[in-house]
Amino acid sequence: MSNLADYFMIEVIFKIILWENLLLILLVKFTLKRVLVLSLNLVMTGKFLRYLRYEKRFSAYTIKAYQSDLEQFITFLEEQYEEQNINKATHFYIRSWIVSLIDAGIQARSITRKISSLRSFYKFQVREGLLPSNPMQKIIAPKIPGKLPHFVQKEKMQEVFDSHHFDDNYDGHLERTVLETLYATGMRRAELAALRDQDIDFSQGVIRVIGKRNKERIIPMLSSLATTLRIFLIEKNKRVSNQLVLIRKNGKPLGPVGIYSIVKKHLSMSGVPGKKSPHVLRHTFATHLLNSGADINAIKEILGHASLAATQVYTHNTIEQLKAIYKQAHPKA
Fold first, then answer.
1. Residues annotated as catalytic (active site), given as ranges
2. Domain encompassing residue 197
3. Long-range pairs for 123-128 at CB < 8 Å and ≥24 separation?
4. pLDDT digits 0-9 by tens, 100-139
5. Which of 6, 21, 163, 247 is most buried, judged by most C-beta within 10 A?
6. In whole angstroms, what is the distance from residue 189 CA to residue 278 CA?
7. Which of the listed residues 138, 163, 186 is the one where a domain comes to its end?
8. pTM of the model
9. Ramachandran region, residue 66 (left: φ > 0; alpha: ψ -120 to 50; beta: rest)
10. What's the pLDDT tens digit per position in 76-99?
11. CA pair distance 193, 197, nearest whole angstrom
């Protein structure tokens, strides 16, 4: 009886060991498959991001946004459908992802950008022969509600540049340079952060800017801005040796975050309502020029817009201002 019990015990132990080994084999096989698929995703997305950088010449900020969108979608595929391979996603999976973004309260503009990221990625995959067709062909982006660019009124901008806002020291001169350059040129935050001493031509009265996709443009420089830049550059070059214009007194670049903080600080001090960012000053620059009768094509070139449609949005602000003046002034309004 004892021998029979021992036999059954040995059999049970043998089966347990067999199952453990089988589970281990399956686990290793599953893990290896997952690692291979994830590695394949990295290769495919990496090649796409390099294409954006070297062929499309997108900015580092834009490429980072594309990368983030793709990573979010890959995570969604794995969590919701246990699918790790981004190239096996169908339009059904993509629509499901869009619905989840809407349910999460993501703004339509952000969702549209994410859809654009996927559309560009799969278009690249088809071009490279890695997919027979683009799963984005059946996807329609949600409509973005019309929204006029927010800008600062002229009176408020005058308050911003009141001398008492800026201390008479290095930091004060740096902050005034940031505000005045943004408002007088319509530069983007990243463009200003990358501006170098040699990009400013005082003799010609112009500033050379490298914009999106490394496109160069020339912006006229007001005499008042030239004076502000001269004062600051003399002080900066006494302290540090750095080609970048915007340098902190500790010798480190101000950078996009520092520019944003300065703009927010001074717009808040002046009681400017609504959003307070460097891009608001870009909108303000364009709107004030249009309101003063500047040619829209000239504004397009200064802003570095690829198409006139991007600039025409500012005409709506001008029309709204005319409506307000009409209602206020007309006796029958």
1. 188, 212, 279, 282, 305, 314
2. 154-329
3. 124/48, 124/51, 125/44, 125/48, 125/87, 128/47
4. 998 888 888 888 899 999 999 999 999 999 889 999 988 8
5. 247
6. 6
7. 138
8. 0.62
9. alpha
10. 998 898 887 888 899 899 999 998
11. 12
